[in-house]
Amino acid sequence: MPPTDYDLIIIGAGPAGSTTARFAAEAGLRVLLVDKRQELGAPIQCSGAISGHGLAAAGIDADPEFIHEAIYGFAIYDQEGERTVHDYRLLKPDEYGAAEGKKPLGYVVDRRRFDRYLMTQAERAGAGVWLKTEGLGYQPTDDGHCTVSLRRYNQDLRLTTRVLVGADGLQSQVGRWAGLQTHIKITELAGCLQFIVDGVETEGLLEIVTGHEWAPGGYAWVFPKGHGYAEIGLGVIATMTDKPAQWHLDKFIRQSFFRRRFANSRVLEVQGGGVPLAAPLRTQYADNLILVGDAARHVNPITGGGLHTAVAGGKIAADFLIGHLGDGLPLQDGALRAYQTLWLEELGEKMWKLYGIKTDIFHNMNIQQRDRQLYATMSDYFSPTSEFKKI
Amino acid sequence: MSKQQPVLFSIGWNACINCGACVAICPQEAGFVSPFDTIAVDRPCDIACLLCEAICPVDTITHVPVLQQVAQPALATALRRTRSAPPTHPGEL
Predict the structure, then answer these.
(1) Are residues A27 and A129 in the same domain?
(2) Does residue A312 fall inside a structural domain?
(3) Which class for B46: exposed (0-12), middle (13-18), buried (19 or more C-beta within 10 A)?
(4) Is there a single domain that holds both residue A35 and residue A176?
């Protein structure tokens, strides 16, 4: 077979793409990682929470370069402000804490620095990294490979590769090139808005506020953001409200049981995004193509968290591709289904189960019952006895 | 929510936070995007499902109906020819 320019071309240098690139390059694959942006992580569409376990499992050191603040537990609130606290400093004092010899449960990261850090790891492992480079299309070829069209600083390029990895986020165009069913239902995409604020005290906990009154179809949050800052945000489902997220966030800040706590808040940044509370894509592969991260909808359907699942999925994709390409196996006619099978075994089946739990809650049309279910589920999800603490 | 008539979207850039939710919810095939990672604003949307307007966290997408039904396909073709955007058909280069 004729040689290709690369073994892997990865479109999108977010956490999933960069993690795939790093492990693949470390194993000796010829990797090109491209991103159309000039600055990774921005515009920020994420609250930035990831567990210590999630970082460690993907071989990522908790580097001060990207950490805003350490997290030691959770507080889950019902609509009136009653709360369930899982503070691991109290639950497992020998293991978790700020003192020497103890560790945080997780972190809130700076997405600009986190994404750049992960890209740097990929670059140092030997991957080519091109910013300001947009993917335009791809075409499988008869020799079993594919060509990828890119535009880099206005210059059109066409490169050959064995596999194209779509890591281009929730707005993924790569999946659409391959004709994959990427359409997400309006009932399963939360419109989210958050403010980075000064003047709001936090206590090392991720705080999650449930209740239809504040965030119909989703939840609101208050996360520590380091240096005395916090982030206040929420996500709503458009079919459950006729108001935009902005209206709900304003109401949450002014009218909720936190109104006194928020009274002196001053907005330092405005961020937003669509967060899928949905199932993973049913088909995450095509000829010479796989999807990772948000593009494959590798997002926790209960929490909307996507960082752990992105880096975990990136490692699974890299491990698969290292073996598959190393063995010279076919790349077309359904051959990459094996990637999806591996992903389901290692991560996906848990996500499907979470999706079932989430769907059961939101299919209940009785708002009070649904609120109680969501509060109970969230409270249980973050407890030390949760079966899902690994994702 | 759905309308039969094609629409042309307009984005209030002053409020847009470039969050990408409109593109994420959009059922159009690849390429119905602007250079600013929003839904396209330079050509009509034939689906007119308006989900992008519903999801927008800052409520900054509006539309006008495209009235000239006859001229509209020609306009779309002309725009497609001149714009530098991804291919219309999946997989095509």
Answers:
(1) yes
(2) yes
(3) middle
(4) yes
Is residue A382 over pLDDT 90?
yes
- Residue B92: which pLDDT band, with cuts at 50, 70 and 90? very low
* Domain tally, chain A: 2
B35 vs A: CB within 8 A:
no
Chain A residue with Cα closest to B32: A173
User: Residue B91 pLDDT > 90, yes or no?
Assistant: no
pLDDT digits (tens, 9 = 90+) for A189-207: 999 999 999 999 999 999 9
A164-178 per-position pLDDT tens digit: 999 999 989 999 999
Residues in B touching A177 (Cβ below 8 Å): 30, 86-87, 90-91
Q: In chain B, which residue's Cα lies nearest the Cα of A250?
A: B58
Q: Is the pLDDT of residue A251 over 50?
A: yes
Which member of A158, A173, A272 has the closest CB to residue B17? A272
- The reply to whether A86 falls in a domain is yes
**Contacts of B84 by beta carbon, 8 Å cutoff, 6+ apart:** A151
Average pLDDT score over residue span A40-59:
93
Given CB atoms, is A259 within the 8 Å cutoff of chain B?
A: no
Domains recognised in chain B with CATH numbers: 7-82 (3.30.70)
Tell whether A37 is within 8 A of chain B (Cβ).
no
CA angle, corner A347, sides to A346 and A351, nearest 5?
Answer: 150
Crossing angle for the helix pair A15-26 and A111-124, nearest 10 degrees? 20
Taking the CA of residue A385 and the nearest CA in chain B, the distance in Å comes to: 34
Structural domain of A210: 67-104+185-274
